[in-house]
């Protein structure tokens, strides 16, 4: 098993801060796996915005051909965008995954297509994403692992003009109880995060970012407490004194219910109180 992808550096802290808060929405998430090895998956998500009353849905089908180590994925969303993805694993070399993706928007008949490659060794992960339609762009990611240190780089290049659009860098130190991550994006945005597993029931995290252009600094503090095997409480507060609380109750092995509340400690913002509810079903 190799290092994580560039996007997953610091993921533990990101998930603690961002996941599980269905703020201002009613959310239903259903996932079903079938097959002898549970290799086929059907999932659907529905999001209802309480304020705007807008409804967004996603439907995904995933079909794995174990004999050829190949995965076929079909996606559709309520914006009438159809996506087809073909993943080929270890077909051309050990540790190499090739992915072909196409997207079609039925509303304006627009199309996008990408080819992705993912090469993994025990100490390295190298990814490429090349756009085949429209403006030719290549996104390259590299993550190198050395003991408990992960070093990542991202470069976005406009192939047509042979111009580098963006360069990003990230470094992360991973230990059993602490994960420290820092990043620099395009020499304008700098930030970092920390995740601490304080005990078997308590997780703490924080993230901070600074933009050198508008001189703005943002931060968020978060925590998660497992009150019991079936009941979890999460909370976070940001630099705008906005507090979010979420409770998740696992009814059984297949069904979980989530309730979320968000409010501000600033008196002028107290009318912005939001709530949200979620249902998760998996079998």
Automatic annotation (TrEMBL):
Coiled coil: none
Gene Ontology MF terms: porin activity; voltage-gated monoatomic anion channel activity
The keyword Cell division appears for this protein: no
Sorted UniProt keywords: Ion transport, Membrane, Mitochondrion, Mitochondrion outer membrane, Porin, Transmembrane, Transmembrane beta strand, Transport
Gene Ontology cellular-component annotations: mitochondrial outer membrane; pore complex
Main location, first listed in the record: mitochondrion
Subcellular location: Mitochondrion outer membrane
Family statement drawn from the similarity comment of this UniProt entry: Belongs to the eukaryotic mitochondrial porin family.
Classification via PANTHER family: GH26960P-RELATED (PTHR11743:SF70), VOLTAGE-DEPENDENT ANION-SELECTIVE CHANNEL (PTHR11743)
Protein name, as recorded: Voltage-dependent anion-selective channel protein 3
Organism in which the protein naturally occurs: Parastrongyloides trichosuri
């Amino acid at each position: 098993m190799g290092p994580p992808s560039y996007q997953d550096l610091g993921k533990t802290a990101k998930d603690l801060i961002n996941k599980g808060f269905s703020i201002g929405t009613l959310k239903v998430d259903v996932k079903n796996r079938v097959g002898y090895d549970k290799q086929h998956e059907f999932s659907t998500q529905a999001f209802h915005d309480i304020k705007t009353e807008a409804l967004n849905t996603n439907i995904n089908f995933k079909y794995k051909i174990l004999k050829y180590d190949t995965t076929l994925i079909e996606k559709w969303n309520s914006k009438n965008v159809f996506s087809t993805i073909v993943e080929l694993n270890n077909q051309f070399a050990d540790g190499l995954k090739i992915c072909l993706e196409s997207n079609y928007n039925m509303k304006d008949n627009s199309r996008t297509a990408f080819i992705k490659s993912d090469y993994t060794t025990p100490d390295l992960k190298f990814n490429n994403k090349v756009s085949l339609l429209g403006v030719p762009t290549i996104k390259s990611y590299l993550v190198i692992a050395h003991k408990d240190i992960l070093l990542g780089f991202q470069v976005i290049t406009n192939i047509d003009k042979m111009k580098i659009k963006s360069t990003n860098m990230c470094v992360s130190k991973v230990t059993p109880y602490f994960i420290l991550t820092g990043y620099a994006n395009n020499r304008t945005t700098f930030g970092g995060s920390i995740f601490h597993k304080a005990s078997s029931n308590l997780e703490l995290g924080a993230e901070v970012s600074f933009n050198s252009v508008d001189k703005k600094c943002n931060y968020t503090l978060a925590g998660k407490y497992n009150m019991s095997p079936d009941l979890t409480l999460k909370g976070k507060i940001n630099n705008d004194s906005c507090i979010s609380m979420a409770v998740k109750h696992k009814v059984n092995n297949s069904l979980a219910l989530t309730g979320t509340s968000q409010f501000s400690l600033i008196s002028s913002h107290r009318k912005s109180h939001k709530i949200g509810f979620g249902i998760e079903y998996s079998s």
